[in-house]
Amino acid sequence: PIRRLMSHSLNTFKKYLNIKIMKKITHIFLAFSLLAILIGCEQKATVGERWSKEKAWQGYEQNGWLVGANYNLNNAINQLEFWQAETFDPQRIDLELGWADDIGFNSMRVYLHDIAWETDPEGFLDRVDTYLEIAHSHNISTMLVLFDAVWNPVAKPGKQPDPIPHTHNSGWIQSPTAQRLQDKTQYPLLEEYVKAVITRFANDPRVVAWDLYNEPDNTNNDRFTDTEAPNKTDHTYNLMVKTFQWAREINPSQPLTVGVWQNDWAEDKVHENRFNVFQLENSDIISFHDYGNMENFIRKVESLKRFNRPIVCTEYMARENKSTFQEKLPYMKQEGVSAYNWGLVSGKTQTIYPWRSWRETFTDEPDLWFHDVFHPDGTPYDQEEVELIRELTRN
């Protein structure tokens, strides 16, 4: 009886031990499975096959130091007035880009719009081609911008509104509109737009890069509360991810980018903004905006160098904010950072007025222009600025 009791106890202990071991193995398996899921989720932050650093640098070095402006036609209040057939103005474009060429600018960042394409797909693409040909004749390459989350969320084709007097960029419009942004049934049309434009110019040497979405996390500081899409940033994040996917499917010969512009991009801070993480992990070349002082500008450039990719500042120069050609352009040339200031010729966008003109009343042209380089007749706003640009671009 004692032996049987001992044998039974031993068997019970073995079963207990086996159960404990199996539970331990199960826990380990579940832990590894959870880790694999987390790794998989992290990998999904990267969409498609991003260019290698070597490929990004090869293309960047072939183009040399890019310097120019965010270009909108002097007599166009927004992207639709720029690109619609009835207001597209090749002669004026030729004149203005001639002024840019004369001071040494060799590249422009130019905004497109999905409504301009939807209204007249082939005509729109032909007009983009015409613009590119004019720019090329002035030795100017172009970075094309497909979507934009900034300013008015409502837009329609046809005649565009007149400027609100003395108000910064009063007629600029988002692409897509708020209505289209929040309606997922419209996304196949947006996909068609993205793929049609990129396919047409995917191997065009006149196009230097694709900026897929301008400031996708910009909420406009509640400026358009009645017309913005509810949960706007959730929609723009989703569309940004899809736009990278659509563009990667075309696989253009030019790099893709979406510029970071707010929050801190330092390694220990960048994860505080999901947009910044995605944009920095998916852009072939790193682009950013900065309208602040020189100290912050240098800090931001230094923080972006850790990615070991070409860096392009796609928006800067706001004189009232102490963001000037004199301070920033020599530094960017020294560091090999390509540079696109906001605005070329003063016109219907009225970006000579500061952002605060939305809440403060101006009755006359400010003594200190906020943006832009030329008066409508081609006279430089500041001759010293122009001479500096010439010196830096021709040496």
* Major sheet strand order: 5-4-3-2-1-8-7-6
The biggest beta sheet reads: 8 strands, parallel
SSE ordering: HHEHHEHHEHHEHEHEHEHEH
List the total number of helices: 13
- Round the Cα radius of gyration to an integer and report it: 26 Å
Strand content: 5-15%
User: What general form does the structure show?
Assistant: globular
Mean pLDDT: 91
Class derived from helix and strand content: alpha/beta
Short synopsis of the structure:
This protein has 395 residues and is of the alpha/beta class.
Offer a few descriptive terms.
single chain, 395 residues, alpha/beta, 8-stranded parallel sheet, 13 helices, 8 strands, 44% helix
